[in-house]
Amino acid sequence: MKKKFGAKIGLVPYASVVIGTYDENGNPDAMNVGWAMQVGSKEVAINILKHKTLDNLKESKAFTMAFVTKDTMVASDYVGLVSAAKTPNKIEKSGLTCRQSDYVNAPEFEEYPMTFHCDVISITEEFGNTRIVGEIKETTIDDRYLGNDNLPDFRKMGIVWFEDTHKDYVLMGDVAGKAFSVGKKLKEE
To answer: Could you tell me whether strands 107-109 and 98-100 are parallel, antiparallel, or unpaired per DSSP bridges?
Structure first.
């Protein structure tokens, strides 16, 4: 028997990311955003409510999206708990090291192993949230987190997912199978 949960959101884990923006005075800001996803071959979307970061996105039209890891989890959670509108020095308090992205007008935080550098291509009001779609202009990955094949190794990075049901950060697990391969045995039968 299957238990019914209705049309409830948050039953599936999703990537935990930190969005980096500049405010109207050029001060860096960061916010942990739960509802973020890739929505095209080089587009990502974030859904947020009214926050200082939303104002920054509307003003600057650019952001970085850094993937939270076990090592950056404390700072990442902090920047999601505290608003720059009330705590202007939250970046300093978080311990994150900020520098200007080489690709878009947004801050990049050195501690994250993988970052998307994005320009805003649309901002729309949908379903009680504001949806920002960004075009990825560049993806940067620290060399230490590349595998033997010179591609990103997410398990090495210690990427965490946000599991909304229990409000937990969950480490990415082991490989369960090879995509576009494990099903071939049924195709051959």
So the answer is: antiparallel
Report whether 166 contacts 22 (CB < 8 A). Answer: no
What is the three-class DSSP state of 81?
helix
> What pLDDT was estimated at residue 95?
95
Structural domains in the chain, sorted by start: 14-188 (2.30.110.10)
Angstrom distance (rounded) from CA 33 to CA 7: 22
What CA–CA distance (Å, rounded) separates 60 from 49? 17
Distance between CA 90 and CA 79 in Å, rounded? 7
pTM value? 0.89
Phi, psi of 102 (to 5 degrees): -80, -5
pLDDT at residue 154 tops 90:
no
C-alpha span between 184 and 29 (Å, rounded): 47
Which of 96, 75, 76, 22 shows the shortest CA–CA distance to 53? Answer: 22
189 pLDDT band (50/70/90 cuts)?
Answer: low
187, burial (CB in 10 Å: exposed 0-12, middle 13-18, buried 19+): exposed
Distance CA 113, CA 66 (A): 8
